[in-house]
Design goal:
This protein has one domain. Helices cover about 80% and strands about 0% of the residues. With about 70 residues, it is mostly helical.
């Protein structure tokens, strides 16, 4: 389970380095954001509104994979 507070703190303090995206397992977009300077800074602002959903999705996918492992 990933924490929304931790994700927002990473976004605020280390967002320019895409730390919040790497934390949430979004390696591809993390590298893209890192290499383009957060899409020229716009991505950093957009992520403010997207982090909540990214954390929820990560946690949901983690729970589903654990359930699938148990039932398979």
């Amino acid at each position: 389970m990933k924490s929304k507070i931790a994700a927002y703190l990473l976004w605020f303090f280390f967002g320019f380095f895409s730390a919040h995206r790497f934390y949430l397992g979004k390696i591809g977009s993390g590298i893209l954001y890192l290499l383009t300077g957060q899409l020229l800074g716009i991505g950093w602002i957009i992520d403010l509104f997207l982090i909540d959903g990214m954390v929820e999705r990560y946690n949901l996918e983690t729970r589903v994979s654990k359930i699938e492992t148990i039932w398979v």
